[in-house]
Input
Amino acid sequence: MSKFIDLSQDIFDNMVVHPYDDKVKLYKDKYLEEDKYNNFRLEIGMHAGTHIDTPMHLTNRKTFINEISLEKFAGKGCLLDVRDESIISFKQEYKDVVNENDIVILFTNYSDKYGTEEYYTTHPVINDDLADFFVEKNIKMLGMDLPSPDKYPFKIHKKLFANNILIIENLTNLSKLVNINNFNIIAFPLKIKAEASIARVIASIDI
Amino acid sequence: MSKFIDLSQDIFDNMVVHPYDDKVKLYKDKYLEEDKYNNFRLEIGMHAGTHIDTPMHLTNRKTFINEISLEKFAGKGCLLDVRDESIISFKQEYKDVVNENDIVILFTNYSDKYGTEEYYTTHPVINDDLADFFVEKNIKMLGMDLPSPDKYPFKIHKKLFANNILIIENLTNLSKLVNINNFNIIAFPLKIKAEASIARVIASIDI
Output
């Protein structure tokens, strides 16, 4: 048996997105009385809400997210508690807790600001040493309760991508993982021909 | 360790959808050279490709799919091989293989016709006895490689919904499950305020 913790933000009409992105529209377009069924239609960019970035987002790589092995999107999770760090830095103790093929989750608690414009402009960033450490450890994915691990020109994004580490952005509920020793992350993207995908991201705990 | 089998259809621009639904649009709207990043935007109804129906699709129920417990969308799978049945009927042997809370998957092989208009009009349907059996067993979800378990006026849909059984439509790759005794289904929908959701549906096998 497993217990699930939802790490995903809600998708709803006109939700706040990155200032450079177009708005999300979610609306009912079929009605039970007239059309014999209800239906909602969604218009969304692949970086709205909780989503996964692949290298094609910032490079000329040709691999769409639906071509990446499913094994990349699920596996052992590893939470790093980095609250109160505006520049999230490498610490020696991480050598003992992060392992190859982990899905590392950075808990900043910055998701408190999710839904505001400020969330996208004043967020913490991670430094080169920490990114180098993740590359050296060969982790699968790096997730966080932030809109991005860095800012323009996205050096950290590009370093991770160059080493096939995918990035999960806009997570929430990470406080629920703080005292849990063993959990898995399940973060399958849509099977979509795109450079990223909105996703339902779940922590799974064996009970 | 788990091995994953992808049971999902691809999402791509102008993919064939149900004749009553609006078209899917998937297009690149940001370009690395001009915009500093690549992005794709998706316009889609929640019943395109592989997706999960909830009662609100055909009834006046007020529960959106993002309000349904995650436990409903994952669990033990049970494959019923129903190839060559145009009316998919109850069989006594199912009493020994289907259990409470299973996610039952009907393998019709009709996904061979996916992508054609015919797929939506001439598909097999399930009969009342089989639907009654699923209700009696209290299964979590019923999945299938069909666009629907029935046709207008959707009596089977409504019977399943009245008993809180969700429906997964437009699965594929089910032949890969035929000789597997134990598998789990992972079918988390988007966390979306809608009556259904496109979804990545996976079979997970312990290895």
